[in-house]
Recover the amino acids of this structure.
């Protein structure tokens, strides 16, 4: 998945597990950028009575770089706290919740937002309400109305939301992790099976979303809103992290863990799938605790990605040109680690300097597309991935095709991609909840009562 | 480290996670606060739990964590005393 359960250690700590990061110029407010970080993967909507919530003991952060050196120049920090209104019931809610302040919600969660700009902290909001999770129609007869109350305006034209949403990522997990199979190309696989349509494994699951919408002139280095994509200052880098206290002691008196010590980063996410399919398993946990500025250590896995070597093996005879290509993958290096420099794609760049660092790179001078193409830049839509990442962007297909060699000619015109490269897909489409056309854009979370059981087939 | 401060520290460490933070004047060699680098040592207010971490018992290094801070102390004698107090080898 993009980054759901992508590393051994963080897969055991879902509350701190970052799943997706998005950064895009807001289509309905093009003078702003929307930054979204999702956490807590694969939430089955009926997973009560202790439903999903942010960790009160986790520091969630969205980082922005704007000076072409891959360190955070601007960070938005989010800290949560949970209250129990009635300690004498096991219920999440003791009656219908029609308003976000209803006392029938027994376990409300609140949060603070702090901006750290060049090291200076400023609290933007405190005791901001999260919405309840979507328990079901009896508990939340108008979930959309209650969730809307959790959209908060912050000083300076910013907006923020933190709470449960439907996951918007789509991918055929069951097939891809079964020896790299793509159901539409099953017959061509080394272990051949009948071809079939892809299955979106994520469509029935929720995540917890942190979204903040920020005027562009508050994100750029010089406080301007650039309109020329070729200017250096038009590009920002974005990534998200989660941190825990360095030590944890179980306090038997309260039955809870107590965190002590400085915050220690335990999860990191910039480009989708970077840690998931580029970094080898033995290095994934280490990658998660490091800053992007240290990603030179992982350059080798970008320059010679394991998956590019596997494709010709898994699909014999399908990728002869890719199999023969043994040069370092300068195309992937640019897309994932430095941004695309001027001169590669006419009229576009999102270069942030030559220090390799995994960040989403967004050129804020590129306006939202009037006709978005979910294949983004490789399909001629410069407002999409890898220029930042929109919620609708089909990053699985884009990255599969890029790894298979589709983007090599951008930097090495002598290479001809194999015929199958531009057809690669996992066969899924966005069958998740309908997206909103306004902040926070992600669709409403699936309801617990509405949940339908999945498969139990073992063979 | 002088004997007075060492005794204060040992008293606090022996109190464990439910104990009282030590006044660790003179102990700090390095300190860290992940969100904003700080030169402060552990709290001197005596209200926060303290966790002591000796990663390598053969070394002279001890890390003290309290609140959102940590300090690294280098004192082989102190490490040895703590190991002895815990019955460690």
């Amino acid at each position: 998945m993009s980054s759901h359960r992508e590393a051994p250690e963080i897969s055991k700590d879902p509350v701190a597990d970052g799943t997706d990061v998005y950064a895009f110029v807001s289509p309905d407010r093009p003078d702003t950028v929307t930054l979204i970080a999702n956490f807590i993967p694969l939430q089955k909507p009926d997973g009560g009575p202790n439903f999903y919530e942010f960790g009160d003991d986790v520091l969630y952060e969205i980082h922005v770089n704007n000076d072409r050196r891959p360190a955070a120049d601007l960070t938005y920090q989010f800290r949560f706290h949970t209250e129990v209104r009635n300690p004498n019931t096991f219920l999440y809610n003791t009656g219908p919740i029609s308003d976000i302040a209803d006392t029938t919600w027994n376990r409300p969660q609140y949060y603070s937002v702090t901006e750290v700009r060049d090291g200076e902290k400023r609290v933007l909001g405190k005791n901001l309400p999260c919405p309840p999770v979507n328990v079901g129609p009896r508990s939340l007869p108008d979930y959309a109305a209650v969730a809307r109350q959790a959209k908060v305006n912050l000083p300076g034209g910013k907006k923020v939301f933190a709470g449960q949403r439907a996951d918007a990522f789509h991918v055929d997990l069951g097939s891809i992790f079964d020896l790299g199979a793509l159901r539409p190309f099953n017959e061509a696989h080394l272990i051949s099976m009948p071809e079939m349509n892809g299955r979106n494994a994520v469509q029935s699951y929720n995540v917890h979303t942190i979204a903040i919408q920020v005027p562009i002139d508050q994100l750029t280095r010089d406080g301007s809103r650039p309109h020329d994509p070729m200017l250096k200052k038009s590009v920002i880098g974005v990534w998200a992290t989660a941190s825990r206290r360095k030590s944890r002691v179980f306090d038997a008196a309260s039955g809870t863990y107590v965190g002590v010590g400085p915050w220690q980063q335990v999860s990191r996410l910039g480009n989708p799938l970077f840690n998931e399919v580029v970094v080898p398993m033995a290095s994934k946990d280490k990658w998660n605790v490091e800053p992007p500025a240290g990603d030179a250590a992982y350059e080798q896995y970008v320059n010679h990605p394991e998956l590019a070597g596997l494709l010709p093996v898994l699909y014999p005879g399908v990728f002869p040109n890719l199999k023969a290509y043994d040069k370092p993958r300068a195309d992937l290096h640019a897309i994932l680690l430095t941004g695309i420099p001027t001169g590669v794609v006419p009229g576009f760049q999102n270069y942030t300097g030559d220090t390799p660092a995994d960040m989403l790179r967004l050129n804020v001078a590129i306006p939202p597309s009037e006709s978005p193409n979910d294949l983004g830049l490789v399909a001629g839509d410069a407002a999409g991935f890898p220029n930042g990442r929109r919620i609708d962007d089909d990053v699985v297909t884009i990255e599969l095709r890029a790894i298979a060699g589709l983007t090599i000619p951008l930097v090495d015109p002598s290479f001809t991609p194999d015929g199958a490269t531009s057809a690669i897909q996992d066969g899924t489409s966005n069958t998740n909840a309908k997206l909103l056309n306004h902040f926070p854009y992600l669709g409403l979370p699936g309801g617990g009562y509405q949940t339908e059981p999945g498969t139990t087939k073992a063979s | 480290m002088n004997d007075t401060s060492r005794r204060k520290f040992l008293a606090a460490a022996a109190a464990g996670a439910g104990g009282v933070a030590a006044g660790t004047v003179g102990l700090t060699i390095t300190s860290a606060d992940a969100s904003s680098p700080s030169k402060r040592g552990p709290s001197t207010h005596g209200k926060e739990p303290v966790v002591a971490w000796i990663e390598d018992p053969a070394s002279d290094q001890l890390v003290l964590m309290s609140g959102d801070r940590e300090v690294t102390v280098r004192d082989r004698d102190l490490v040895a005393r703590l190991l002895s107090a815990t019955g460690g080898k």
In short: Residues 1-30, 32-43 of chain B have pLDDT under 50 and may be disordered. Strands of chain B lie at 30-32, 50-53, 61-66, 69-74. Chain B has two helices and four strands. The longest helix of chain B spans residues 3-15.
